[in-house]
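A note from the maintainers: we've had questions about how concatenated examples are separated. There is no special marker in the raw files; a new sequence line simply starts the next protein. For clarity in this README we add a label.
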Amino acid sequence: MNDTAHALSSCRTLWELVARRADLTPDRPVLLQDDRSLSFGELRARAERVAAGLYDRGVRPGTVVAWQLPTRIETVLLSLALARLGAVQSPVIPFYRDREVGFALRESKAEFFAVPGEWRGFDHTAMARRLEASGIFEAYDGAELPDGDPAVLPAPPADGTSVRWIYWTSGTTSDPKGVLHTDRSLIAGGSCLAHALRLTQDDVGSIAFPYAHIGGPDYLVMLLLYGFPALMFEHFALPAALEGYRRHGVTVAGGSTAFYSMFLAEQRKQPGSPVVPTLRLLAGGGAPKPPELYHSVVREMGVRLTHGYGMTEVPMITMGAPDDSAENLATTEGRPPEGMEIRIVDGEVRLKGEAVCQGYLDPAQSAAAFDADGFFVTGDLGHLTEDGHLVLTGRLKDVIIRKGENISAKEIEDLLHRHPAVGDVAVIGLPDAVRGERVCAVVEPVTEQPPGVGELTLSAVTAYLRAEGLSVHKLPEQLEVVDALPRNETLRKVLKYKLRERYS
């Protein structure tokens, strides 16, 4: 991290970081979208005017404001305006509907709710009006930002350790959890990402995931620390997005494992000719990365790939660095930054550091989330290498217990990812009266079957895994071939609970 970025990383609040960057490089661009561009100076000035407009509407320090908005320049402006006021904001992923949104509004006790009107065929305003009947909040169209005179504003917040952010877990098995963050925990997470990637003012990044995800402020902090811009996508799809990447000269792209696979698929349509000539680095996290995918990206795309480990509760835990060895980049999640302490207890990863959340809205959930020493209990399994890199071996709930033997789903998945006919795979444990659990592999085939590769059958898959050296007791006893694995709409994680429900 350069001297300027290091100094900025000590800012107490997100708004202080915005203001100091605007003083340093007011005319440099920060947000790019379609044909629009916003500079750091404009970001501060416009966010202050939006803050004044919100203040005129009754938003005060501590007011809880929920927003469910797509990845737009206006979304960042609204979020920063709330940060300027010291309000408590609760971002909600745009793909959530009445049940999840209603739960988030009730639990957070939101007083205001900003929505995008009709977006991608869904009327968010109508949903807000339905939910507003409960009398909890006032809904308004977040696409039309309020405007006011900054002279009316109170002083910016000075305390960076108060809870001002409520993020929501995906809620894949139950109601979402409200995760409590501070400005400092978000700055710490973004600083980890920025430090690991070694970016410069000459880079151009990209935000291709929902800004309402915890990765939104994570990425924004990196832009503010280093003073470079990012291209924003309201709806990301390839190959349609490639024109934007090329036109703006994006040098850093990614998001999660699914994004790497999408770029690789486009590259394979035109081998030898870079899909984005300026691209030099793919980076992301949020889902397991098969080693074979790393090697394929580096070999076929000619770019570096660095992958990290984070979650809504701790936005950035470890990150691979561009100068790590190929072995570490392929098989580990990188190293933790200074200030992030990792402890392995009975194989489980536990964390302590400034980037760790303050807990959950539900006090009982908070109490269960930390051990007696104050370490956050992740539910992830892993170990540290001798040089401090973290290797994840799966989730506690992804350990399949077959006839009393523990089987790692990730180990089988990593091997199957090497199969030329496998596009993606999820391995799950299913209830079995004799074995306790049986191993089931659910495979999404590649789009085009390679020549000479036979049909994906259970016998063919088990023969392949035997040849790869997998122990016999770990071999799948069930194979399901699907057109597409079920995924969430944020970082395109595979939803294993849906597969368990379907095949149990």
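[label: protein 2]
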Amino acid sequence: MSALHTLNFYPMAIRFLPALFLCLLLFSCLSESDKKDSRYSNLNDNLVLLSKELVADRRTDRAEFVLRYDEDDTELNGYTTLPVALDSLQALLRSYPEIENKVRLLPDAAVGNKTVGIIKVSVANLRSEPGHSQELATQALLGTPIEVLDLVDNWCLVRTPDRYIAWLEPGAFTAMTVPEAKIWLEGELLRLVPPSGFLTAAPGGTTIISDLVAGNLLRPTGRQQSQFLELALPDNTLGWAPKADFEPSGNWQSPDALSTDRLLEAARKLAGRPYLWGGTSPKGMDCSGFTKTAYYLNGYVIPRDASQQVHAGVEVELTDDFKNLEAGDLLFFGRFREDGSEKITHVGVYLGDGQFLHAGADNGRITTNSLRASAPDYAEHRLKSLLRARRLSPDSKGVLTVNDAFRSLLTK
């Protein structure tokens, strides 16, 4: 039987020889680019998998790879914020010695040695992509440090103390070396307490140098006139503001504990402010910008977005009577995707007795609603979309003091 099988094989092979010859002929006629398409298709798949493996959340880290080739050259471009990505790429490219690895590790040489900056406007608007017409991604307040990662078309890719990555125009911050930034942050700083204020050219004057919002940090020069202080912005621009509007930032940056009463007080003072997608300041806030700002005004930094905040703190079991909830807990709303996973789309602060304070686009401003059907401010769609509750405390996941968040940014 073995011999018979062998005899039958050769006629079959002979029948397929024309087809095999045709395949070899076609392959030999392929252009170099077509051959590279075939050779690199698997590599491209592996690059996509590597990026997903390295970066759990693109809002806080990046690993962007682009393989470019033509008939003459082959190179891997892109950038990453993760040093480990370069090691992983090196291992992946061992089988492709012809590929020139041009992936950049950020901060890039394009920003020089000034890899940090201090926000110098009351509220800086950070965009999801370079350009003033791009989506507002988040905001940063005057005196806040940022990590400067890259410079493209006169826009800087930066990282804020909550680890959020977005684009900012250079005019909104003062670029510094790490030692310079430490001098600014570790020196005496004053924090604006009222919701808003102004820095003027003269004590009590009407010529405005800059507007101010709660949480702005300025440096006192030591000069005082009547009830006014002379203050310096990060770029050393000087102006005057009422002494009563400020307090030393030390205790705020390193609080001993998180007071629920003070958290709710700060949240209630923001009531009525307009809803603003991407906003994280008293000028306007989205839902997670509101919760983030309430914590920030009490000396704590929490993640930026609702889908990130839902992983901070500890879980609180939801019941129909809300008996497990405590004032100050964060409530998370959303829906289920087709695959059964949760999609968190909204967050608010629980006030007690079924009420919560939140910034909703449907309300247009920060306002109070209730989860109880008997209440006049009942929001049925919110009750139906309530998915989770979390309790945040200083020793829980995702909660840092302002001082620790600032320091982590400068010592990364």
